[in-house]
């Protein structure tokens, strides 16, 4: 990929995502990080992007909001680790709120596969989360949708959403954020979404922010909560130590999810109508068949081994006979005795093993 192609690739990525990281670009384009840095520096000198630590942002990134479909493919393992960590703050029978965004969507996926979903009431302004709850096989979970104007991240925002939210009360709210600004707080590119997020926090007893470590590298327009306004920030252990210390100085609690054992959610939860086969306390039918098949295979291999061994011994015996025959002919020549004379004495000229011996070998 030549320089002009690389720079066009970087600009296209910025238009869809709003921000890029040097390490990601290096992998995607198959070039060194030094090459990517040079390209970013050249584009920054032309005013086409703005350099930030570890990457670059669009010159209009304060208002840039990537599509839900684009964000859902980014940092999936980190989001899942954060979602697992956040489950500890949910209890069966709670009334909770889940905001828009892809990290909160993964949290909803984890929650609906957890025993904690029993009896939950979920208020959400996220259309993907609402559809997920409605389509899930979880028993006892109900969903309330706020209504409002749909954003690029598939969140419902604006005065209608705010009015519905203001008439309710929840035990806890789980929100994502586009960026974390130290020491300001949590920001989003959409001012209407910022207002709706603030409304969700105002009706909750506890507020939690779910944000992977890359959100500290972003910047946005509208502040929806200060650092001290939320009860906990849940991120991942990829957050640099100095950034984590600065964050702890402003928030009540910072949790960093362990990403060493990142897992991937299955495409679909197991159905309650078709329970998974259990191997506890006995064998399944499938296991019994496998064992039977193993026995059959062993017998077949054993028989094949006997046959192969018989053939091998027959060949060895034949070869031995051929060698003996050669030695016999040599002796005949040396002594001058004829083959006819040997026949008259009843001796065998081939020196092969008697038929009875061959049969005995086969029986073994």
How would you describe the overall organization of this protein?
Among the domains are: 55 residues, Winged helix-like DNA-binding domain superfamily/Winged helix DNA-binding domain (Arc Repressor Mutant, subunit A, Orthogonal Bundle), CATH 1.10.10.10; 190 residues, Rossmann fold. The strands form four sheets. It has a seven-stranded parallel beta sheet, with helices on both faces. It has a three-stranded antiparallel beta sheet with strand order 1-3-2. The protein has a three-stranded antiparallel beta sheet with strand order 10-11-13. The chain has 13 helices and 15 strands. It is globular and about 55 Å long. It has 364 residues and is of the alpha/beta class.
CATH class descriptor name of the domain at 68-257: Alpha Beta
Q: Which stretches are low in confidence, meaning pLDDT under 50 for 5 or more residues running?
A: 267-307, 309-364
What's the N-to-C terminus distance? 70 Å
**Helix/sheet category:** alpha/beta
Rg (C-alpha, Å): 37 Å
Oligomer: single chain
Q: What is the third-level CATH name, the topology of the domain at 68-257? A: Rossmann fold
How much helix, percentage-wise, in residues? 40-55%
Strand content: 15-25%
The CATH architecture of the domain at 68-257 comes to: 3-Layer(aba) Sandwich
Mean pLDDT: 77
Topology as a string of helices (H) and strands (E): HEHHEEHHEHEHEEEHEEEHEEEHEHHH
Largest sheet: 7 strands, parallel
Query: What is the overall number of helices?
Result: 13
Which descriptor suits the 3D outline?
Answer: globular
Which strands sit side by side, in order, in the main sheet?
6-5-4-9-12-14-15
Number of strands: 15
